[in-house]
Amino acid sequence: MNHQPIEGFSKLTKNGKIDWLVNEYLEGNQEYQNILKQYWNGNADLQKLHEEFSENTISNFYMPYGIAPNFLIDGKLLALPMAVEESSVVAAASKAAKFWIDKGGFKTTIINNEKLGHTHFIFKVEPHKLLHFFNFSLKKKLFEATENITANMRKRGGGILDIKLVDKTSEMPDYYQLKASFDTVDSMGANFINSCLEQFGKTLKQEVAISEDFTQDEKNSLQIVMNILSNFTPDCVVRAEVSCKIDDLKDDSGISNEEFAWKFKQAVTIAEIEPFRATTHNKGVMNGVDAVVIATGNDFRATEACAHAYAARDGQYRSLTHCTIDNGIFRFWIDLPISVGVVGGLTNLHPLVKFSLALLGKPSAQELMSILAVSGLAQNFGALRSLVTTGIQKGHMKMHLLNILNQMGATEEEKQHFVTYFKDKTVTHHEVISEFNRLRAQ
User: So what EC number does this one have (predicted)?
Assistant: First the structure.
């Protein structure tokens, strides 16, 4: 091995961790220590709060926190907080919001709000015997055994909605599931769901042990493999949509409203049938979704996993958004499966998360679902609008210009020169370098 493993890394102080890393991996270069420490918050209590969000924390990793204004959602005008590093995401979302503000804005509908979890178990028993046991005994016991866990959630209007026995033995020998659906109201509910499921596993084992329905060999064969929520929530779905007359689809690209609508619909249809395009198409959707998910302290990895599983639910990966042109009406919408919360976790701790939720009017979990779907739809509209008219690079590279100039060490005066220089030109990396060298040579 090129380095020595370490015992007890987690027990070192923060400075101790940094010293070890720099000496072991970075040749003792103090510049790296300075990089880490310059991102520490000057408020020691706030820094400690951030460090306790995760393990072995040695610094903070900053992302730009931007605002996309002018979102008219279900009659309310909102400014969306977006934590994202990719050039042009906030600008594209803002431009799309402004485009739709005088056309009725975005409309949303919560289609369903169920979340899922499973107890996965192996049981060498005839399926009909297990089904009889579940229907006439176990299901009731499972609800009873979790009454203490669900009490507070039930007071808020949520709880366990249903429990089903799922026979998966045709796919894997002796494999069954207890599949439960939940309503977690304003919390994402991961801890609540997992606590219920772990109790399911215990209760299943206890009830099988005392049941007269099974032989001793059958009882001995029961193995609880795991109890865990699913991040695939196909029954926790929100729809966001925009629509207007084709005559009102005014665009400054120089093409007619009719051509714009036709090309836009073709672009969406291509993403519905072509997985190579759908992947990039949906990545753009998630640019908008994830930026607000992160800003509101939710789990963007769960959001991503769920959205992409949903996009492939019929066996082929497809677009999350859809478009129709009927009777002179342009309609564009998204059905987004998403599970988020506005209480618990970082929402009660992270100062910027609390700011984000306050900025959004302290939304309920369902209202936040709507906002996230709108953000994804707006981002996708902005991307497709560019793709079928001027091309994606014109706007993207203009936003990326400052990144290139910062890499080259440009002064503020030089940056202003380039903003003016590219006002009526498409930004390319080659052209930036050429003009930069010319400018410096003067």
Answer: 1.1.1.88
